[in-house]
Design goal:
This protein has about 400 residues and is an alpha+beta fold. Helix content is about 45%, strand content about 15%. It is built from twelve helices and ten strands. A hairpin with a 2-residue loop joins β2 and β3. α9 runs antiparallel to α10 and α10 runs antiparallel to α12. The protein is globular and about 80 Å long.
Length: about 400
């Protein structure tokens, strides 16, 4: 089976035309400002039908399989920073999947369709100060009062948080239920009374992606803003992690290739001790090893995508791809910086921005250690807990 065809090539061309004309010429300016004009940029993609590739045509989408989303994620890696691609990925693969799959027709019309068109910017509200990868431990809660939910709490590290019009927010709604059965996803309009966006967070990388801490104090939201069934929010969130993690892995491919290409070019040109840096066996052998690892990583991403498109559960493969992505970005990025020598420590060098931005991959969307736990669980290799089998099921 050939994963990508002519239609994917046309999609890639369209994405790169937007990048070359409307994004890369302004990236340095946006990085310095600490934000990019999300509504303006998203509208460019929305006008070309690129923000709803996998969503139904009835809601403005293209009804294409997930391989097209992977192709787009790859091409977004041609943007000269990581912040803009990440923000787009939040819109297409993090805040909208549950809404598209389980939301009411009214919610889809009000929030999904404008988001696909690029008229609205969305964000996903899961992480909190005390609950990053530990999703079950969130504290933000919503109680019912008449026809409304009243939300109190806060969310942390919210990509698009300062410019977003709405949030797909995970909250506790069912008192007394188990941690995996007491959560719901609710659409929260961020202009609602009681929503407070903190000062933009100052990050190591992804500088042009605005990231906010958002507080909720007695925020009233109609109960009709509930996505799907009450108490199923954790399940819905886990379901969409397959796509989120595949997207993150695919989006890293082009960036890794570019870092490697920049390093080969620099080490070939840079003269030291009577020859090029690249002439040193350690350098060209190490670059060959990294190129091999990168090809193996791409093969894993494509295999996971192929199986997902065919309807298979790829939780294990997506977790493996995300894990490999996090580790390879660190290893490759560190080597590329090292082989650039002193120039690899200068902010003016594009390799530095790529290095800083890529460091998030091993943390966001589930840290490497969480991916290892998921893989071990699905392999049946986690240590047994008293009263359980290797599968985690009770023995009684």
């Amino acid at each position: 089976m050939q994963l990508f065809g002519e239609e994917h090539a046309l999609l890639r061309k369209t994405v790169n035309q937007i990048i070359d004309k409307h994004i890369n010429p302004y990236v340095d300016e946006w990085e310095a400002a600490g934000a990019f004009p999300a509504h303006e940029v998203f509208k460019r993609f929305g006008e070309q039908g690129l923000l709803g590739l996998k969503y139904p045509e009835a809601h403005g989408g293209a009804a294409l399989d997930y391989s097209y989303s992977v192709a787009m994620a790859e091409e977004l890696g041609n943007i000269n920073c990581g912040g803009v691609p990440m923000a787009i990925g939040v819109q297409t693969d993090m805040c909208t999947p549950a809404l598209a799959r389980f939301g009411s027709d009214d919610l889809k019309k009000t929030y999904l369709e404008p988001s696909i068109a690029g008229d609205m910017v969305g964000c996903i509200g899961v992480s909190e100060v005390g609950a990053g990868s530990d999703v079950a431990n969130i504290k933000t809660h919503a109680r019912k009062d008449g026809d409304d939910f009243v939300i109190n709490g806060g969310k942390m590290w919210i990509t698009n948080g300062y410019q977003a019009d709405w949030m797909c927010c995970l909250v506790n709604t069912v008192e007394g239920a188990a941690a995996h059965r007491n959560k719901s996803l609710i659409v929260v309009p961020l202009d609602a009374k009681g929503v407070d966006r903190s000062t933009k967070l100052d990050k190591l990388g992804m500088r042009c992606s605005d990231t906010a801490q958002i507080f909720f104090e007695d925020v009233r939201v109609p109960q009709r803003n509930l996505i799907g069934q009450e108490g199923y929010g954790f399940v819905y969130q886990m379901m969409q992690f397959q796509e989120e993690r595949l997207w993150a892995a695919a989006n890293s491919v082009r960036g890794l290739e570019r870092m490697l290409d920049m390093t080969v070019a620099y080490t070939r040109e840079r003269q030291v001790f009577g020859g090029s840096v690249l002439d040193n066996q350690y350098v060209h052998f190490k670059l060959a090893e990294l190129a091999t690892e990168l090809e193996a990583f791409k093969a894993l991403v494509y295999r996971a995508t192929e199986l997902y498109v065919s309807g298979k559960d790829v939780t294990k493969l997506a977790s493996m791809a995300k894990l490999k992505c996090g580790r390879l970005t660190r290893e490759l990025g560190d080597c590329c910086i090292q082989f650039h020598g002193g120039m690899g420590y200068m902010n003016e060098n594009p390799i530095v921005r790529a290095y800083r931005d890529s460091r998030l991959v091993a943390i966001g969307g589930g840290a490497d250690e969480v991916m290892l736990g998921i893989i071990c669980k699905l392999m049946g290799t986690l240590p047994r807990q008293p009263g359980t089998t290797r599968t985690g099921k009770g023995t009684s």
